[in-house]
From TrEMBL:
Protein source organism: Clunio marinus
Single GO cellular component term: plasma membrane
Subcellular location: Cell membrane
Major localization class: membrane
Endpoints of the signal sequence: 1-20
InterPro entries in the cross-refs: 7tm6_olfct_rcpt (IPR004117)
GO molecular function, one term: olfactory receptor activity
GO biological process: signal transduction
Membrane topology qualifier: Multi-pass membrane protein
Listed name of the protein: CLUMA_CG012001, isoform A
Alphabetic keyword roster: Cell membrane, Membrane, Olfaction, Receptor, Sensory transduction, Signal, Transducer, Transmembrane, Transmembrane helix
Coiled-coil residues: none
Length: 129
């Protein structure tokens, strides 16, 4: 559980630190005479007014932040599912190890049927080669 929580948390933390540094980088640009947005984009209005610039700037930073959250969620989903599957297989193995197999039991009969099927299937495959 700790590993599953820690890795996405670290990823999101570093992603937001990067976004924060990227967002304030426009204020340290050499071109102070013109307002510059973090992402070059065309808008059907002029953002030279400081109020309009502030709204568009917050909109862009918020959009990039949400993109980082969505990307990190989708990137870590596969590994989280693999961790979950691993745990479920371990639980299944523990439960199956508690079952006693007797030759007259249904479990043993099903086991033999499956093993014979795979053995026959392997023999067919080997004869084709």
């Amino acid at each position: 559980m700790a590993k599953t929580f820690l890795l996405p948390f670290l990823f999101l933390t570093f992603a937001h630190l990067t976004i924060g540094q990227w967002a304030i980088s426009v204020f340290f640009d050499d071109k102070h005479d013109k307002l510059r947005l973090p992402i070059s984009a065309w808008y059907p209005f002029s953002y030279e007014n400081p109020w309009v610039y502030s709204i568009v700037y917050i909109y862009q930073v918020y959009g990039i932040s949400m993109s980082a959250v969505v990307n990190s969620a989708t990137d870590t989903f596969a590994s989280s599912m693999i961790f979950h599957l691993d745990s479920q297989i371990k639980r299944l193995g523990i439960q199956l190890s508690k079952v006693k197999l007797f030759k007259s039991s249904l479990y043993y009969i099903i086991y033999k049927i499956i093993m014979n099927y795979f053995r026959l299937d392997m023999k067919k495959t080997m004869t084709k080669i």
